[in-house]
Amino acid sequence: MVESHVVQSSIRWGSYPLIFLGCSFLQWQIIEQGLPYWPLTPLVATAGIVLIALLERIQPYEAAWNNDHDDTVVDVLHAAFSLILIFTVVEISTLSRQFLPDAFLNIASVWPAESPLWIQVLLAGAIIDFGLWFMHWLSHQNHFLWRLHALHHSSERLYWLNGERRHPISALLLASPGLIAAIVLGAPAPVIGCWFASIAVHLAFQHSNLDYSVGIFRHVLGVAEIHRWHHKREYEDAQVNFGEFWMIWDQLFTTFKYQKNGVRAGEVGMREDMPRTYLKQLQWPFVRRL
Questions:
Q1: Is the peptide bond before 101 cis (omega within 30 degrees of 0)?
Q2: How many angstroms separate the Cα of 36 from the Cα of each of 65, 85, 97, 199?
Q3: In angstroms, rounded to a whole number, what is the distance separating the alpha carbons of residues 179 and 192?
Q4: Best-predicted range by mean pLDDT among 1-10, 85-94, 132-141?
């Protein structure tokens, strides 16, 4: 009994710092040591995500969410596309600087290139994260953007895989402003890639069915116990906690919400029906409603 309690406590309090910080440290070392981005960075992120998926089976937040809801196959397809998109960011960032006008390249001189790598990663991450927060918030205000974003809210359970359940156009619109700003300001491509690789692991945690906690840090990090409120079935209740990683933006703009009694099974999803197949989900935002 005592051993079981120790295991539960270890998973609850140790899983996020050990896996997320461990993967982030390895990603940082890959860049710091000049090791090849491909395939090392995707492999580290995959290892972290696999550990989260395994821990869900050992200590789920909701046992029912570990069961297939006729969504696993389509979520695999969404995740495969989204993760490929994330891991091509470095290549896109590298190529994009070749086409920037000189005026933009002059702005790039403001980037603190001499600072330690971890500072540069955090700075690029803050820029990208605010862009994500703003576009995420805007996607809940604008009808067309919501139609694209709604796919992400359609899942009737939260688990490690559906953090990447996103319409490709929505994913591009969400990431582009912050990413472009970071590139223009001079963030090196490996720095941007390091941040996105770490975020891939964080997103798996953020949507996971794992019973874990980060204690008081829930007020500044977009972890599962905070993000579940954003997936409430009632649209009017889901206008909170837009942050991808930092909850600082939600704190500043008064969209932060936390209650001890968390969101449970049967309380997430959408009122409107979403098709079950991959291609029909991609078509859904553009289908005219009668």
A1: no
A2: 37, 18, 20, 19
A3: 8
A4: 132-141
Condensed to tens digits (0 to 9), the pLDDT of residues 197-249 reads 999 999 999 999 999 999 999 999 999 999 999 999 999 999 999 999 999 99
Cα 171 to chain centroid distance, Å, stands at: 10
Question: Which residue, chain included where needed, has tokens 């837009």?
Answer: 242
Q: Which residue has the tokens 């996103």?
A: 166
Residue 129: which of 256, 250, 257, 246 has the closest Cα? Answer: 246
Q: What pLDDT was estimated at residue 215? A: 97
Q: How far apart are CA 28 and CA 282, in angstroms?
A: 35
Q: What three-state secondary structure class fits 52?
A: helix
Q: How confident is the model at residue 100 (pLDDT cuts 50, 70, 90)?
A: low
Contacts of 209 (CB under 8 A, 6+ apart): 56, 60, 61, 62, 65, 66, 157, 158, 159, 160
Read off the tokens for 57.
């089976």
Beta bridge partners of 91: none
**Per-residue model confidence (pLDDT) at position 133:** 98
Distance CA 5, CA 106 (A): 57
